[in-house]
Write a structure and sequence with these properties.
mainly alpha
Length: 369
């Protein structure tokens, strides 16, 4: 199989983090607005074709049994990939041995010229070893050429199968839609409401609607980054085990992305009271009692988030001024990552203000006491 040498450009990484959630939100709302939402469609069929078509996933999605024909071909691809990797190692090992034998022969010839004792015997031994290592090197090259031919053939076969299915997808989608009834329409957006952490805790009530809406939008925005992780690690696994081409950027890009997601989504989690807390006493209080408790502990909340905002702004400012990069081969910029610390802290403070207003309304106006 051919090697993959693709390295994700920095500009593409940051662009995808911004544009992918926007496109995903638009596609989801567009699909939900259609009457046939949830039925087989061209977008998902081609998505499966591009990302997992080599195992027939697009045909399985369309409930077509001919997808099983891709599996044995893919197994051949995996086998040839292993053979190519082993052949490369053999070629590298035998070439190194042959080069070492050549150097030993040259040194032995110099010893013969200088008429050193036992030099002729060493030369004969070195020449015999060179002959053997040269034969091993040629055999390894032949085996590698054979493995490459098998890999190339398997790749061509599966590429032709995918190319043919690329033209057949529209007809397969029509067939699948003809035999599958439309699913029931969803009642609400999956992120429209929050599930209380405990049965005794009532659902979230808005404090300041604009802040609550901002927390929801930012939380929903970064939630779609989790889908990017699936694609990225999928590429890593395929590149490593099918093309013998592990990447030097997938792991770093994803743990940086999850770090930023953690900071931005904090306000969304706080809005819907889904943060982990020790509530042995808190859960036993009434609604007004919990509001009083929240008002008292809000002092510590604002001290913490305020400190995080100030210190995070300093970290981000230093990273921007010095154009800080990672120390890995990928060398991605660090300042956007560190900038998420003060942004996440600011969102938490705003959501804390909204929560404070809500709790104050419950305490002083005795709402839902």
């Amino acid at each position: 199989m051919p090697s993959l040498s693709f390295v994700l450009p920095h500009w593409l990484y940051w662009s995808v983090l911004i544009l992918f959630p926007v496109v995903a939100l638009w596609l989801i709302r567009r699909q939900a607005a259609r009457r046939d939402a949830g039925r087989p469609n061209h977008f998902l069929a081609y998505l499966f074709l591009v990302t997992a078509g080599f195992i027939g996933m697009h045909r399985f999605y369309l409930k077509n049994a001919w997808g099983f024909i891709f599996i044995p071909v893919f197994l051949v691809v995996l086998w040839t990939s292993t053979e190519v990797r082993d052949a490369r190692e053999d070629v590298s090992r035998t070439r190194a041995a042959a080069e070492s034998s050549q150097r030993f022969v040259k040194r032995s010839e110099q010893d013969v010229t200088r008429k050193k004792t036992g030099a002729e015997e060493k030369l004969k031994k070195a020449q015999a070893e060179l002959e053997q290592t040269s034969v091993d090197y040629k055999i390894a090259q032949t085996d590698k050429a054979s493995a490459d031919a098998w890999a190339r053939g398997a790749a061509i076969v599966i590429a032709l199968m995918l190319l043919g299915d690329a033209f057949l997808v529209p007809r397969l989608v029509r067939r699948a839609r003809a035999v599958e009834p439309p699913p029931p329409q969803p009642l609400e957006h999956p992120m429209e409401t929050a599930v209380p952490e405990h049965p005794g805790v009532p659902p979230r009530r808005p404090g300041i609607p604009a802040i609550d809406a901002l927390s929801r939008m930012t939380g929903e925005f970064v939630a779609y980054w989790g889908v990017l992780a699936v694609f990225a690690y999928y590429y890593e696994v395929v590149g490593r085990y099918v093309f013998n081409s592990p990447t030097n950027w997938v792991h770093e890009s994803m743990f940086l992305m999850f770090g930023m997601q953690y900071m931005i989504a904090g306000a969304y989690a706080y809005r819907d009271e889904t943060h982990v807390r020790v509530d042995i006493l808190y859960s036993q209080l009434s609604v007004r009692g919990r509001a009083v408790c929240d008002l008292i502990t809000s002092v510590f909340f604002f001290l913490f988030t305020g400190t995080m905002l100030v210190s995070g702004w300093r970290f981000a400012g230093d990273a921007i001024n010095f154009n800080e990069h990672s120390f890995t081969e990928w060398e991605v910029q660090y300042w956007p990552v560190k900038l998420m610390i003060p942004i996440g802290a600011a969102l938490l403070i705003l959501q804390g203000i909204s929560r404070l207003v809500r709790d104050a309304a419950i305490v002083f106006r005795r709402r839902e006491a």
